[in-house]
Structure prediction request, 321 residues.
Amino acid sequence: MHPNAQCIVTNKARLGLGSRVSSRLNWVNEKYERFLKRRFPRFYVLYHTLITGFRLLLSDSMEIKKIKMKMYHNNLDVHELPYHDMERLRQFRRDVIKAIPLMLISIPPFANYLVFVLMYLFPRQILIRHFWTPEKQVEFEGVYHAQRCQHHAEVLQGLVRAVPRVRKEKQSQLLDLCNKVENGAHPSVTDIQAVRTLFSGPPLGMKRLGAYQMRLLSTQLFLTPRLPAFLIRHRLNGHALELLQLDRALNSLGVLKLSEAELRQACYLRGLLASSLSAKQCREWLMQWLQLTSRLKDSETSLLLHSLVLLSVNYHKSIHH
Prediction:
């Protein structure tokens, strides 16, 4: 037999064997899943969620690799990427950071058993979003948002306390805005833009914010407030700039191009719990947000951070009136 022909036959044989092995493994796996579902239904839910999560994580990893390659070959910075690529990178980075403690715990021998126990007992704290069921994702987002809401009143009070220290001609406008929100009204974008210049210099600019106010604002982005003031300022400004760049990319793309899931996630990132809102209501709110942030400069990130509260705290009330 000719060497080339022999090579082709060998390759076909290998492919055929690989296909049979893969088919056999799939059959065994399906049989095992049916057994778990029938005999241990609660464990099956956990098992199925983990397997699905690993597949989603692997898929995301491949997407991130493609984005990084595109950035390298086209000499692109993150802020030059399209919205969806930028958002994938942001979310994946946060997922990896959250997963690091679990990976460290699993390093010692036989620690996998402990990891499984921790995952079962503390899914919200331990697991990243890939390993949450859709029902759990809604539940956990509600829990995290409730933690944000605990600090809304204090953020507003921080603005009220700053009124005597801002320019006299703007004091009444800032106080009116705070009173409006504290009394349960949803402010317009015009109301917030009227005090925009106050958030680029003292006392409300990013470089001059007090440590306590920065710690309160950290909770709105799910950042730990238990750090020295200079580190909190650095992290807050970095995350606010990232969000501002995302807004610019989203403004270029257009809100109408987002799927419903992407739309709700975009609202949630910007301070609004969207699980009880219609897609139309989410879209209208996100357009309001972009109307404000599309005009902001990099030096006005403090206003973006305060708007996480100003624009979200009373929106649910306003749509029911």
